[in-house]
Design a protein that fits this description.
By secondary structure, the chain is α/β, with parallel strands linked by helices. The protein has helices at about 20-25, 40-50, 55-65, 95-100, 120-135, 155-170, 180-190, 205-220, 230, 235-250; strands at about 15-20, 50-55, 70-75, 105-115, 140-145, 175, 195-200, 225. The chain contains ten helices and eight strands. An eight-stranded parallel barrel has the order 1-2-3-4-5-6-7-8, surrounded by seven helices. α6 (about 155-170) runs parallel beside α7 (about 180-190) and α8 packs parallel to α10. The relative contact order is 0.15.
C-alpha cells in the first residue's frame, strides 16, 4: 500500500464526505431550486464540519476557489450519464494534475465491476493511483457492481468483491454499496485490508433511518460514509449531519 497519508480526510480517524456528483449521473432530477446550487452544498459541508466535498471537474473549477480555505475538495475524475446502462461506462474526464490545480486534496474514480469496460476502467484507475501518489494525494475508488450479469448491485458477496478490488488496485479509500448488515459489512472491511472502506449514502431515507445505517457501518469497523442525497435532500440537512456525526465522529453506536 501507498505511504500516502489520509489523516487530513478524517476526524477521530473516521470519515464523512459530502458527495454531489449526481448531476452528471442522474441529471437534475435529484435536485430542487435550493440544492441544485453548488454554493448550497458547500455551505452544508462547511457549517456541518464535514471532512470534504466531492464534485466533478466543472463545479470544482468554477466554485472551489470561493471555499478553498473553508473545506477540502475531492474531485471525481470520471462520470457517465443515465443513458448508457447496463454498463454505465464513465471514462476519465479530468486529470489528477488538473484536479490538484482546482484545489483537490484527493481524487476519486468510479469502476463498474461486471460491466463490459471493467478492464479499461481498472487500467485507467491504476494510472490515476500512480499519478495521485506521485503528487502525494490519496486516490479513492468508487467500486460498484453493474452490468448484464448483475441482478443485485448490493449483494453481500459482490460488495465484498468491490472492496477487494479497491485494495488490489491500490486505492487508499474504497467506496462501496451498503451490503445490508454488520456481518456482511465487516467482511467488506476485511476484504479491503489496508484500504479504508466508506459506504455510499444510497437512496433517500429518514434522518433516523440513515443514522441507524451509520451505526451498522461503524459496528462493522468501517471508516465512514460518502453521503449525498440523505443530507442535501433533507428538509434540515444540519439535523442529519448532527445525527451521523454523533455516530461516526463521536463513536456513539
Amino acid at each position: 500500500m501507498s505511504h500516502v497519508n489520509i489523516d487530513h480526510l478524517t476526524t477521530n480517524g473516521k470519515i464523512i464526505l459530502l458527495a454531489c456528483d449526481q448531476g452528471m449521473e442522474h441529471g437534475p432530477v435529484d435536485f430542487n431550486e435550493k440544492n441544485i446550487d453548488p454554493h448550497y452544498i458547500y455551505e452544508i459541508g462547511i457549517k456541518a464540519g464535514l471532512n470534504a466535498v466531492i464534485f466533478g471537474r466543472g463545479i470544482s473549477e468554477h466554485y472551489h476557489q470561493d471555499y478553498k480555505n473553508d473545506i477540502q475538495l475531492i474531485v471525481k475524475l470520471n462520470g457517465h450519464t443515465k443513458f448508457n446502462k447496463p454498463d454505465s461506462y464513465g471514462k476519465q474526464n479530468c486529470s489528477v494534475e488538473e484536479a490538484i490545480r482546482f484545489g483537490a486534496v484527493a481524487v476519486g474514480y468510479t469502476i463498474h465491476i461486471g460491466a463490459g469496460h471493467e478492464a479499461d476502467q481498472m487500467q485507467e484507475f491504476a494510472g490515476i493511483v500512480s499519478a495521485a501518489h506521485a503528487n502525494g494525494i490519496p486516490a479513492i475508488a468508487w467500486v460498484y457492481p453493474r452490468g448484464p450479469q448483475i441482478t443485485n448491485e448490493k449483494d453481500p458477496e459482490l460488495c465484498a468483491y468491490a472492496a477487494r478490488i479497491g485494495l488490489e488496485l491500490g486505492a487508499d479509500i474504497v467506496k462501496i454499496y451498503n451490503s445490508g448488515d454488520v456481518g456482511a459489512l465487516r467482511w467488506c472491511g476485511l476484504s479491503a485490508g489496508k484500504t479504508k472502506v466508506v459506504v455510499s449514502g444510497g437512496d433517500h431515507v429518514t434522518p433516523e433511518e440513515y443514522a441507524e445505517e451509520c451505526k451498522m457501518i461503524m459496528q462493522a469497523g468501517l471508516s465512514g460514509v460518502a453521503v449525498g442525497r440523505n443530507v442535501w435532500q433533507a428538509e434540515d440537512p444540519y439535523h442529519v449531519c448532527d445525527l451521523i456525526k454523533d455516530v461516526i465522529y463521536g463513536g456513539n453506536f
